[in-house]
Write a structure and sequence with these properties.
Strand order of the largest sheet: 1-6-5-4-2-3
Mean pLDDT: 96
CATH architecture: 3-Layer(aba) Sandwich
Family: Belongs to the CobH/CbiC family.
CATH superfamily: Cobalamin biosynthesis CobH/CbiC, precorrin-8X methylmutase
Low-confidence stretches: none
Number of domains: 1
Pathway: Cofactor biosynthesis; adenosylcobalamin biosynthesis
InterPro entries: Cbl_synth_CobH/CbiC, CobH/CbiC_sf
Largest sheet: 6 strands, mixed
Organism: Desulfoluna limicola
Number of helices: 11
Protein name: Precorrin-8X methylmutase
CATH topology: Rossmann fold
Number of strands: 6
Helix content: 40-55%
CATH class: Alpha Beta
Radius of gyration: 16 Å
Distance between the termini: 29 Å
Length: about 200
């Protein structure tokens, strides 16, 4: 089978198994791609969308606003062709030597230091978190302080320590559109899948 045939068949299977999922016409392409990348139908029940998330994310992409990620895995998974078509960029600074040095000096995670390193670039931008709760928590702290106003936070930190809690806090933080889920599940592949769905939607307009 050709790659497109495999994807088309996968989406058909997802459509059949998801049944009456309850997502809107705009939400479903994102949910479907998240399920596709994870093979996990629990996302049918645990995905959450801010009412302005999709339009805000698409507008940011089409305006060439930067996309930041907390992991190089998410960075690798995001579709660069669509990003470049809008003169945008995708960046991850978690392995940057200056960020690493700052994290060591301040006694914080590199993920948190990476957020601070780009704080002055986050107004109107997209930040995709697929691993580190500390990155998401720092983003929310900056939002509450009025220091940043991102167009969208894609929040899918995964794990047992503060992953579910940070996403719960995202759901309760006013002033920022989000795409996230409830619970411990997530991952860089899921965060990248959500961003990719937005990129495809932006390119189709």
């Amino acid at each position: 089978m050709k790659p497109q045939d495999i994807e088309d068949l996968s989406f058909k299977i997802i459509e059949e198994e998801a049944g009456d999922h309850g997502f809107s016409e705009k939400e479903w392409p994102i949910a479907r791609r998240v399920i596709h990348t994870s093979a996990d139908f629990e996302y049918v029940d645990n995905l959450r969308f801010h009412p302005e998330a999709i339009e805000s994310g698409i507008a940011a992409i089409r305006a060439g606003k930067p996309i930041f990620t907390d992991t190089n895995m998410a960075l690798s998974g995001i579709r660069k062709m669509e990003v470049k078509s809008f003169d945008g960029s995708v960046t991850c600074l978690v392995a940057d030597p200056v960020v690493a040095a700052t994290a060591k000096t301040q006694g914080i995670t590199r993920s948190k230091a990476a957020v601070d390193a780009v704080a002055d670039k986050l107004d109107g931008a997209i930040y995709a978190v697929g691993n580190a709760p500390t990155a998401l928590l720092r983003l929310l702290e900056l939002v509450r302080e009025g220091r940043i106003k991102p167009a969208l936070i894609v929040g899918f930190p995964v794990g047992f320590v503060n992953a579910a809690e940070s996403k719960a806090e995202l759901l309760e933080t006013a002033g920022v559109p989000y795409i996230t889920n409830v619970g411990r599940k997530g991952g860089s592949n899921v965060a990248a899948a959500a961003v990719n769905a937005l990129l495809i939607m932006a390119a189709a307009r």
